[in-house]
Design brief:
By secondary structure, the protein is an alpha/beta fold. It has two domains: 2-73 and 203-406, Rossmann fold (3-Layer(aba) Sandwich), CATH 3.40.50; 79-191, Rossmann fold (3-Layer(aba) Sandwich). It is 43% helix and 14% strand. The chain is built from 17 helices and twelve strands. It has an eight-stranded mixed β-sheet, with helices on both faces. α10 links the parallel β8 (226-230) and β9. α9 (200-219) packs across α10 (235-248) and α10 (235-248) packs across α12.
């Protein structure tokens, strides 16, 4: 299913608060925070040259977030960043002065963190990031998981010392329970979705995601003309679309938001012209995107900055995983989880439809930007779906020349990210 954005706010400027959250100054501050993180390196931008030639576009570049900070997804940038910010803010309040990230490991700040409990609901990756952030600063952590979260993903979160709380139902049910318990016990809720009266912390989570845009702009040889980004509640899509709009204005790429067909809360919100909650039916293999109500902040950004909304089926997502794991003609192999390759799934679906190609201007000069939002967050499921282990797929990359890893920036963005 495909829908052009017909909202009355389409292409209007961002709300002032959202523009501040996704500003150039904020993105630079996120990167400054990252420099204090052990194991931080920029993730790879991969050029899928052969695939671009096959589908008849100028280029396809894929930002591979499967190795971000050792957590396996772009979410490592959001939840943990928000936790750090919140601990520093509480230290500021306690000490009566500004407290910088450079003081994060001091005994005084760690004592503040030790008295805090951060919590959230998760499908897997966000909770892992929040738990990691809590361990990093020395805070307590409680993570709420619904019945659809696999044991492998639960174990990956618990590895960081979080208390795991199981909730019957789906993701939205776990969000409701996490919100209730956090209020009851005076915990700090670090959600990646927002609702009326609760926007600032999800905004900080989105702000953390801008780091991957900053990196990509340094790595891309040319500014993209089209972006396809998968979305659950909308956070990553809104962060990328909003930050690109701040940087590029009306010269920004054509931006398509991609939902699972079984959890298409953003597409249905676009159809209704307002945020809507969709009914929960059959679960989707795209577990990290199985969300039934959009984030209020994310919707506010996307109603302005998204140009189109579309859905992909489970089969499309699995085929994209296989395509990335088994590239043809020398492209780099990529380990993409069930939700990781959904942007590519949408591109392939659009490229196979002449009418759709024409509607979005997907011609021979199109330059595509995609994000592999996660690696194999559940390795056993990955092997079942792809027919190979993540390690086997990763080993293929050692045989490919470094020329397929895009590094050199040859165009000038409006703001210097070097």
């Amino acid at each position: 299913m495909f829908l052009l954005n017909q909202h009355t706010d389409h292409r209007r400027p961002l709300d002032t608060s959202d523009a501040d959250t996704l500003s150039v100054a904020a993105a630079r501050e996120v990167e400054r925070f990252l420099r204090y993180r052990d194991g931080h390196t920029e993730t790879t931008l991969i050029s899928l040259t052969a695939l671009a030639r096959e589908i008849g576009v100028s280029s396809i570049h894929l930002k591979d977030e499967g190795h971000r900070l050792g957590l396996g997804s772009f979410k490592a940038l959001g939840g943990s960043y928000a936790v750090i910010r919140l601990v520093l803010e509480e230290a500021c309040r306690r000490f009566g002065r500004d407290v910088d990230v450079s003081e994060l490991r001091t005994p005084e700040v760690r004592a503040v963190a030790a008295g805090m409990t951060v919590s959230c609901a998760t499908d897997g990756n966000h909770g892992r990031s929040v738990a990691y952030g809590a361990q990093l600063v020395g805070a307590q952590c409680a993570i709420f998981v619904h019945s659809g979260v696999s044991n492998g993903r639960i174990a990956a979160i618990a590895h960081f010392g979080a208390q795991m709380i199981r909730v019957k139902g789906n993701y939205d049910d776990s969000v409701a329970e996490a919100t209730r318990v956090a209020a009851e016990r005076s915990w700090t809720l670090v959600s990646d979705t927002s609702w009326p009266g609760y926007e600032r912390i999800p905004g900080l989570v989105m702000q953390g995601y801008t780091a991957l845009v900053s990196e990509a702009l340094r790595q891309l040889p040319e500014c993209p003309t089209h972006v396809f980004i998968q979305s659950g509640v909308g956070g990553i899509a809104a962060a990328v679309a909003g930050h690109l709009s701040v940087l590029l204005g009306h010269d920004r790429p054509f931006f398509t938001v991609v939902d699972p067909s079984r959890a298409a809360c953003l597409l249905e919100s676009a159809r209704a012209g307002r945020p809507v909650k969709v009914a929960h039916a059959q679960s989707t293999v795209m577990a990290m995107l199985e969300c039934y109500e959009p984030s209020l902040v994310a919707w506010r950004v996307l109603s302005r900055m998204a140009d189109a909304f579309m859905t992909v089926d489970d089969e499309d997502a699995i085929n994209a995983m296989k395509r990335l794991a088994n590239p043809a003609n020398g492209d780099l192999a990529v380990v993409a989880g069930e939700s990781g390759g959904v942007g590519l799934a949408a591109l392939l679906k659009a490229a196979s439809d002449p009418a759709l190609r024409a509607r979005i201007g997907l011609g021979p000069n199109a330059r595509i930007f995609l994000i592999n939002t996660e690696g194999a967050s559940d390795p056993s499921l990955y092997e079942k779906l792809v027919g190979a282990t993540p390690a086997h797929v990763s080993a293929k990359t050692l045989k490919i020349p470094n020329s397929h890893r895009a590094r050199s920036k040859t165009f000038s963005a409006p703001h210097d990210y070097s």
